[in-house]
Structure formats: structure tokens, C-alpha cells
């Protein structure tokens, strides 16, 4: 007889890894195409030589480096095995009854409904507006006395859209201060809004204990394979996160690579700048070919193709470029190296493909 498994898990789809087609160009996971910088590779090698020793469970050196970089104290910073682990831990520290609600926009990051259900809480998805942007008024209206947590993905994955500083502040002013609001800023480094409009969660959260910011080393910092993300917030929230943290889950190699990458951030952010230039080139080419797509503040673009999304994904894969279709909403295309983007554009702007999809 099989052992008892929580029956509610049956409704969570079993994990299906992103497509990988040998030889195909992969623009499906928002990864950085460039390998770690030499300084990070050196730190990785040195840390690997100490692999027989447990890592620092408190990630003290990394948290101190992050605190210094962000202008906060170590007590304001937690790290996790990728920011997805922190998402799950955030549900664990806020929700303790199945009637507790977690509000988030939809469509947004696919981890939100999953971590909510795994945490035995109730998901409250709030549709994006028709420009694929967070509808913060509707989200504020969806907050009830049962709401324990709100995720705001800014910029939003998979639509690439961002909401500005004023809009975030207006939203926060409407949410009761006992509700934790998580600003998931995985793509923060790709934002090119003006300094006044830039929604810097760390700055916005300084005098708001119910705001917690998530950032990651997986995207602009190029360490997706090592799994390090971090949270910045009120010391009481951070202390709770440390309590539910899976011991030693941020490994020694990951901590060392993150510290080295933070030190080399100017080089990494130059790469980000080059990516933003490519992003605008890709978007322009798609607009000129007749596609509709919202502005992107991330390292990907969004094609709202509705019911034709899966078909577009299949056709692109057949042309050697893997992209990510999302149900009947749209297709997310990561911005890669120029030659990879050219391959995608050659497919998408082909007259026959345009005739079907643009
Ligand atoms: C990629 C991504 C993350 C980061 O995931 P990691 O676990 O840090 O690799 C978090 N939130 C969003 C919205 C993302 O797209």
C-alpha cells in the first residue's frame, strides 16, 4: 500500500522541466548567457575545495556584504536557496490556517500559487489590467481580514511590465500594516525607469515594517545554477524567516560566488546594460513586424498571443528556438545573445509566421 500523501497535493501539477532540445537555442528560462566572471569562478573553485565542511548556516559574510551594499543592517537581510525558497518560507511565516489568503496578480510568477498551496493557504489571484500591468487598485480591494500576504512581482514575470514608485506607495498606503507585502524584484537590475519613477523596494520599505523585498543572484548576477536569493525587511520578519530556513540550504559555493559577484557588480551591471540595448532592439523588430507587445523592464519580452500561444511555441521550437508559452495568455521570450535573438527574430518576422501570429 502506498503511504498517505496530503490529498490536496494531487491538484499541483508534477514538476515539468523547461523544454530542452539538443542544439536548440534556449530563450525559455530568463537565464544570463554569460558564465560567471573570472573572480567569481575563482571563488567557486576555492569554496569547492572546502566542500567537506558545512557552510555558514547564517550566511554571515554574505549578509554583511549585502547589508553594506544596500545601506541596511545585517538584521534586515536573510538569504535563501534561490528567492523561490524565500517565497515558500514567507508563506510559512505568515499563514497558519487554510482560510488565510495570499493575494497576487495573475498572470504572474508561476511559483506564487504553488508555494501558497504547499503552505496550506488560499490563493487570491487578481487579473492584470489589459496592458498586462499589475492592477494595484484591484489588488488593494482584494485584501480582506483573511489576507496574510501579498506578492507584488515588479517588474512582472512573465509580462515584463513594471509599476512605478508612486503607484507602489499609493498601494502600500491602502494595505493594512499587519499584512506583509512582498515586492519581488528579481529583475530590478533591468529597470530603466527614471530615477524618480524607479520602484526601489529597499528605499520604499525603509520606514514600512510590513514591506519585504526579494532580489536574486539568478538573473543579472548570472548565478542561476548556484541558487542564492535574498530578502530585505524588518528585523522581526527576517528573524522569522531564519527560523523556518532549511538548515545549510544556501551552500558554501553559492555564498562565496555571491560575495565575489557582489564585489564585481560593476562589471555585471555593464552586461545588464548591453542586455537592455538588445531588449529594445528585439522589441522594436517585433513591433515593426506587426506584433503587439507591452514595454519590458526585464530581460525578456511578452507576446500576448492568447489562444495561439502554444502553437507559436511549437512553431518556434521547430525553428530551433525554445520560448515559453503560458496557457492561453501569451509567450515569454528571454533576450539572449545577439545571434540567438537574431535567430528568434528570423523566425518571428518570417512572412508566413507573421501572417499567422502578428
Ligand atoms: C527568476 C525569478 C525569481 C528568482 O528565482 P531564484 O529562486 O532566485 O532563482 C524570483 N521571482 C521571480 C518573479 C522570478 O522570475
From TrEMBL:
<dbReference type="InterPro" id="IPR015422">
    <property type="entry name" value="PyrdxlP-dep_Trfase_small"/>
</dbReference>
<comment type="function">
    <text>Aminotransferase that catalyzes the conversion of aromatic amino acids and 2-oxoglutarate into corresponding aromatic oxo acids and L-glutamate.</text>
</comment>
<comment type="subunit">
    <text>Homodimer.</text>
</comment>
<dbReference type="GO" id="GO:0008793">
    <property type="term" value="F:aromatic-amino-acid transaminase activity"/>
</dbReference>
<dbReference type="GO" id="GO:0030170">
    <property type="term" value="F:pyridoxal phosphate binding"/>
</dbReference>
<dbReference type="InterPro" id="IPR001917">
    <property type="entry name" value="Aminotrans_II_pyridoxalP_BS"/>
</dbReference>
<dbReference type="InterPro" id="IPR015421">
    <property type="entry name" value="PyrdxlP-dep_Trfase_major"/>
</dbReference>
<feature type="modified residue" description="N6-(pyridoxal phosphate)lysine">
    <location>
        <position position="219"/>
    </location>
</feature>
<dbReference type="InterPro" id="IPR005861">
    <property type="entry name" value="HisP_aminotrans"/>
</dbReference>
<dbReference type="Pfam" id="PF00155">
    <property type="entry name" value="Aminotran_1_2"/>
</dbReference>
<keyword id="KW-0032">Aminotransferase</keyword>
<feature type="domain" description="Aminotransferase class I/classII large">
    <location>
        <begin position="25"/>
        <end position="343"/>
    </location>
</feature>
<keyword id="KW-0808">Transferase</keyword>
<dbReference type="InterPro" id="IPR015424">
    <property type="entry name" value="PyrdxlP-dep_Trfase"/>
</dbReference>
<dbReference type="GO" id="GO:0000105">
    <property type="term" value="P:L-histidine biosynthetic process"/>
</dbReference>
<dbReference type="InterPro" id="IPR004839">
    <property type="entry name" value="Aminotransferase_I/II_large"/>
</dbReference>
<comment type="similarity">
    <text>Belongs to the class-II pyridoxal-phosphate-dependent aminotransferase family.</text>
</comment>
<dbReference type="InterPro" id="IPR050106">
    <property type="entry name" value="HistidinolP_aminotransfase"/>
</dbReference>
<dbReference type="GO" id="GO:0004400">
    <property type="term" value="F:histidinol-phosphate transaminase activity"/>
</dbReference>
<dbReference type="InterPro" id="IPR024892">
    <property type="entry name" value="ArAT"/>
</dbReference>
<protein>
    <recommendedName>
        <fullName>Aromatic amino acid aminotransferase</fullName>
        <ecNumber>2.6.1.57</ecNumber>
    </recommendedName>
</protein>
<keyword id="KW-0663">Pyridoxal phosphate</keyword>
Amino acid at each position: 500500500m502506498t503511504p498517505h500523501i496530503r490529498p490536496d497535493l494531487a491538484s499541483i501539477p508534477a514538476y515539468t522541466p523547461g523544454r530542452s532540445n539538443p542544439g536548440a537555442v534556449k530563450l525559455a528560462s530568463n537565464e544570463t548567457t554569460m558564465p560567471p566572471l573570472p573572480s567569481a569562478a575563482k571563488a567557486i573553485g576555492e569554496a569547492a575545495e572546502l566542500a567537506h565542511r558545512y557552510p555558514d548556516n547564517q550566511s554571515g559574510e554574505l549578509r554583511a556584504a549585502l547589508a553594506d551594499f544596500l545601506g541596511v543592517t545585517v538584521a534586515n537581510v536573510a538569504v535563501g536557496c534561490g528567492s523561490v525558497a524565500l517565497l515558500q518560507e514567507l508563506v510559512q511565516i505568515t499563514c497558519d490556517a487554510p482560510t488565510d489568503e495570499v493575494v497576487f496578480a495573475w498572470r504572474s510568477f508561476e511559483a506564487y500559487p504553488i508555494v501558497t498551496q504547499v503552505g496550506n493557504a488560499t490563493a487570491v489571484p487578481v487579473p492584470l489590467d489589459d496592458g498586462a500591468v499589475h492592477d494595484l487598485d484591484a489588488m488593494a480591494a482584494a485584501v480582506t481580514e483573511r489576507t496574510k500576504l501579498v506578492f507584488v512581482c515588479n517588474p512582472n514575470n512573465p509580462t515584463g511590465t513594471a509599476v512605478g514608485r508612486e503607484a507602489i506607495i499609493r498601494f502600500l498606503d491602502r494595505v493594512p500594516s499587519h499584512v506583509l507585502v512582498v515586492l519581488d524584484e528579481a529583475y530590478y537590475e533591468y529597470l530603466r525607469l527614471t530615477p524618480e519613477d524607479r520602484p526601489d523596494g529597499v528605499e520604499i520599505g525603509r520606514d514600512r515594517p510590513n514591506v519585504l523585498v526579494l532580489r536574486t543572484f539568478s538573473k543579472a548576477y548570472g548565478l542561476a545554477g548556484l541558487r542564492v536569493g535574498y530578502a530585505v525587511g524588518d528585523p522581526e520578519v527576517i528573524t522569522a524567516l531564519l527560523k523556518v530556513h532549511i538548515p545549510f540550504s544556501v551552500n558554501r559555493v553559492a555564498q562565496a560566488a555571491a560575495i565575489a559577484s557582489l564585489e564585481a557588480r560593476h562589471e555585471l551591471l555593464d552586461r545588464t546594460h548591453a542586455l537592455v540595448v538588445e531588449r529594445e532592439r528585439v522589441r522594436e523588430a517585433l513591433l515593426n513586424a506587426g506584433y503587439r507587445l507591452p514595454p519590458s523592464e526585464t530581460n525578456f519580452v511578452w507576446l500576448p498571443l492568447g489562444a495561439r500561444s502554444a502553437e507559436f511555441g511549437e512553431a518556434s521550437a521547430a525553428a530551433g528556438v525554445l520560448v515559453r508559452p503560458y496557457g492561453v495568455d501569451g509567450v515569454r521570450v528571454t533576450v539572449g545573445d545577439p545571434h540567438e535573438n537574431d535567430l528568434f527574430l528570423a523566425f518571428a518576422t518570417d512572412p508566413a509566421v507573421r501572417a499567422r501570429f502578428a
